[in-house]
Queue: 4 jobs
Job 1
Amino acid sequence: MKVIAVKGSGRANAVSSMLIDEFIRGAESAGHEVKVYDVGGMKLFGCHGCEICRKNGCFCVRDDELKPYWEDLKEAGALVLGAPMYMGQPDGQMMSFMNRHYCLKNADRSLKFTDSKKLVTIYSQGAPQDYAKYIPAQENYVNVFTGNGFVSEAVICAGGDSDLDALKSKAYEIGKNI
């Protein structure tokens, strides 16, 4: 299966990136092909609501470094997203990435993908792992994708109080069993 891994942090050694790397290691050990997009360092635009994607039945037409992602997403069976949480929200670059998925529905609000794709989300935050104020934002982020036909397989949240070795093992196992 083709798996797309999206890293949202602008820092190379960020916790969310380390956990995605473990997920990738697990997925590759199981024979999956993994394509990585490091949106934390990409030049990408936010959605500007042009509606071309919905009116013409196409994917996003913005001409930036995210353009190849849409073709890869068509072929993928799974998507793993990693993002740091700042001020109760995924970081700005991941928010722009998330908003670009507006194009996954047609004008009649039907889904462009007829197959369901697996979704794994990974968050990191300085706040404790189960910090109540951040949970609604994390759920909203997952809901953007499940509302577009993805099936949430797992959510990992690394808080400032988390056992990173245990979470790395968990990410590896999730990747291996995706």
Job 2
Amino acid sequence: MTIQWSGILIAVSTFLTIGMFHPIVIKAEYYFGVRCWWWFLVAGLLFLVCSLYVESIIGSAVLGVVGCSCLWSILEIFQQRERVRKGWFPKNPKRNDY
């Protein structure tokens, strides 16, 4: 019996990717507002397409997870705007689009 590390590596990379995207969404909404949603769309689609062409299972899975996290961030950036409106996160004083 051989030990398969693939699942653990994919799980850890998924955990770290999701953890990374929380502050990315917060900062993106703070500095750019929701108008940057299309950046997440383009990045997500690019990562997903790249995942189709990577032969490594782990590499393909990690790219897919990053791509889906980018796409999920589109929803999160609009929800972050609502959290800012409720006062849960600070407003950017240089922006007036709230």
Job 3
Amino acid sequence: MESKSKFWKGVLVGVLVTAFAGLIVVGGAAGIFLIGRSVMDNRAQVQSLAEGADNGGTPEINWSQVEVKSRRLQAIIESYFLFDKDNHRMEEFIYKGLVAGLDDPYSVYYTREEFEDLMEDTTGEYCGIGALVSKSMTTGVVSISKVFKGTPAEEAGLRSGDIFYEVDGVEVTADLDLDILVKQHVKGEEGTTVHLKMFRPSVEDYVEFDVVRRQIEVPTVENRMLAADVGYISVSQFDEVTTQQFKQAIDSMEKQGMKGLIIDLRGNPGGVLDVAVDMVDYLLPDDITKYAKGAGSTLVVSTADKNEEGESYYCKDGHEVDFPIVILQDGNSASASEVFAGAMRDYGQAKLVGTTSFGKGIVQSLLPLGDGSAIKITTAHYYSPSGFDLHGVGLEPDVEIVFEYPEDLEEGEELTDAMDNQLQKGIEVLRGMIK
């Protein structure tokens, strides 16, 4: 009971940040691969990364001293360590420790095996349980931020907010990379079973599940009409399949008489930058000069590395919409979600309702190291069209309202639109915007 109390205490002191790892996209850019949940194209700094950039005055690592001390440690291990050792594993952890020393939760060293697991196309399909997984960058706690309908996770009884304690007997610790946890432990061959021991905050106790994995097609976009003139689109992540689903949803609801739209980005951890840009592009006109710079007019997002070099992304598809938009967000809306919401609000094309977004305004690039291993490393900031750097602060909503989970909601009962106080506030705000 004492260990449970300590565990729960650790959970309470952290703020959950979504870092979805169920799907990874690989985008080539002059030899750099980009990680899916926070994908930001980063061609500008390939040369400095390859050749070694200026360290900004920080003292160089004393590699001679490192070698001497490593040999001394190895000699002690050879002489005194009681058990058998794995020299390859020890070597890999030297590299892991070097990257961990950056004290950046988003920078990670991947072994050959781990890197191979990451190299899956983000097609919207995978074999797993059907849940969106989050990790706290403060506490290391891993939880479920969304359970998709009609999936093994829902059928087994998993809920949003359930916290991972063990997966098939493997303890989920703070230093276990989320990508690796999902790909090596949660996902697996179709028809196999994964045993999950979860901590459920609502009952302050552990619950256990046996979930049978199967092929999952992630419904990244769900839409419906909330009323005769109000449309609703929920976007769970920015995946390769999302742009087309998003466009089709808008076109369909416009034909049904939609005069105002609610876009639900709550719990959306981000995804592929190009997808977020394309979705903004579909909504905004191409000729807004308010923040124009360089070769384009309607700026969506820009990036800048340590040398103040980067790229800018613009609207260019010739399409726009003419109806008011409300975006629902919360503390788990991160990265590409913030790119989308930030651009829409900067141009006065949407109001944000909910709570302050997470505040992940940095770019990670995944670089192969030539021997099958790789490093994912933070390489740049990104900025909204107005130049706002949201990293560490997030986007504050125009209308703040904290989600209130219905106390009388019974086990297995679905949350309805009427019970969702944030959605209801969004509808109220949108009604005031509809001409």
Job 4
Amino acid sequence: MIKVAPSILAADLANLGNDIQLVEYAGADYIHIDVMDGLFVPNISFGVPILRAARRITSLPLDVHMMIIEPIRFVDKFCKEGADILTIHVEADTEENIIAALKRTRENGVRPAVSLKPGTPAEAVLPFLPYCDMVLVMTVEPGFGGQKFMADQMPKVKAIRAWIDELNPTCELEVDGGINAENAHLCIENGANVLVAGTSIGRSGNIPSFIHTLKES
């Protein structure tokens, strides 16, 4: 089953509650929350207060994407405040510390996940795959919404799908960055089953229809 995770990075923050409820009623499966520290990526975005507010608004799983250095420092806090899935970047710390963060996430009763930047080879996921419930492949450079989809990431998605099927079949495979009705089928054909979309949802004009289109791509 294909799932859609609208990103609140493209939401109207003055009406965040309404926007989250709108996509929930429109058929979204997860709410995607981007956390940026201004160091790992050149931007600063949401933190614990937004996560806490989102948790009060929706019963949908909160898919928290941590674009921060040394993420283990914040695992307990984000888990406690309502994350259902906690994604950390393989590039954000040492292999040992990333594995420790994934284990700590699961100990908190939250689904652990890892993410790869476009320049990171597919093989980088292998040490972490046994500890993950989801892998996120970035199809833009992380840090800003509204970027153009990078189709050259599809071989990476395909390779990771093959490893997931072999080594961890219950693991989900998510893509994030420039996803729209024109390219969603490429992601699905190469093995993704969770699509993050932000700008394209806001511009669709008919959110329920757009989410349905993504799922049927």
